[in-house]
Amino acid sequence: MKAILLSGGSGTRLHPMTLAISKQLLPVFDKPMIYYPLTTLILSGIKEIMIITTPHDLPQFQKLLGDGSQFGVEFTYRTQAKPDGIAQAFLIAADWLNNAPCALALGDNLIFADGLSTKLQTAHDRESGATVFAYQVKDPQRYGVISFDETGKALSIEEKPEHPSSNWAVTGLYFYDNKVCEKAEKLRPSPRGELEITDLNKMYLEEDKLHVSLLGRGCAWLDAGIPDSLMQAGTFVQAIQSRQGMLVGSPTEAAFRMGFISLEQLRARGETMAKTELGKMLLRLADTHERFF
């Protein structure tokens, strides 16, 4: 499986902060926003990742992330000239995917949950269909909304409905089989002028091939695309890391735990940031591993 990390858009909901920089490069506490969905993809066991961003922002992402070797993965970069919809990512990446199954993560989404790796691996290993992750919110009209029957089977998906049928929002993390590009090619722009990811998911739903993984109590999903949620995300990460000493959204830690990088690479990465609390936490992880494993 390959993965797309979509980090384009103009970030208009975060102006003026995003007039000069991509929102996915803004800090969420002590790390760039893009580190959080990148960590999720690494925890899914995916090593080949395409980062799609704007032509203007591409050099900054390349400077930050490089070729991916620091995380034991391989990055490919593509540009999206203008934000014509999330599902456009599959058209941009079609030749690179070459009929491989694919995960798609939005660059402004943070997911933190106990047992998340198990859910991710289940979605990764599913041979056909699509998997989306749903989370209860109080403002579902901002998102794609999914409704269920009494048995928990998905009934419908609506994009930003004025009168939501439920409060279960579809998060910015999706897993698809190798038919996804074929389906994306059949999409037509919505009234908003975009190729909607909701319309792509509806295709799988109509074929009875849409799987929904619920993120319930004990899970946190934050869409850091507006000032309030950006602040909430930073506060959440700060609270977890300072109270529990547990890293949140560290692709280096995830790469080490997945076996993508060695203990020596983990320590070297920590030493490059030894003056920061993040670097110190990575070094403590290396010391703890040596002591207990």
What letter string, H or E per element, gives the SSE order?
A: EEEHEHEHHEEHEEEEHHEEHHHH
Q: Give the proportion of residues in helices.
A: 25-40%
CATH architectural designation: Alpha-Beta Complex
Number of helices: 11
What's the CATH class, please? Alpha Beta
Q: For the record, give the distance between the C-alpha atoms at the N and C termini, rounded to a whole number.
A: 30 Å
Total of domains: 1
- The CATH homologous superfamily name equals Spore Coat Polysaccharide Biosynthesis Protein SpsA, Chain A
Q: Give the DSSP E fraction (strand runs of 2 or more residues).
A: 15-25%
What does this structure look like?
It contains eleven helices and 13 strands. Helix 1 (35-43) runs parallel beside helix 9 and helix 10 (263-272) packs antiparallel against helix 11. The chain has a single domain, classed as Alpha-Beta Complex (Spore Coat Polysaccharide Biosynthesis Protein SpsA, Chain A), CATH 3.90.550.10. The model has no long low-confidence stretch (mean pLDDT 93). By secondary structure, the chain is an alpha/beta fold.
Could you give the topology of this structure?
Blueprint: E1 2-6, E2 27-28, E3 31-32, H1 35-43, E4 48-53, H2 58-65, E5 74-79, H3 88-92, H4 94-97, E6 102-106, E7 109-113, H5 116-125, E8 130-136, E9 144-148, E10 154-159, E11 168-176, H6 180-184, H7 197-206, E12 210-215, E13 219-223, H8 227-244, H9 251-257, H10 263-272, H11 277-292
Parallel strand pairs: 1-4, 1-6, 4-5, 8-12
Antiparallel strand pairs: 2-3, 6-11, 7-13, 8-11, 9-10
Helix pairs in contact: 1-9, 10-11
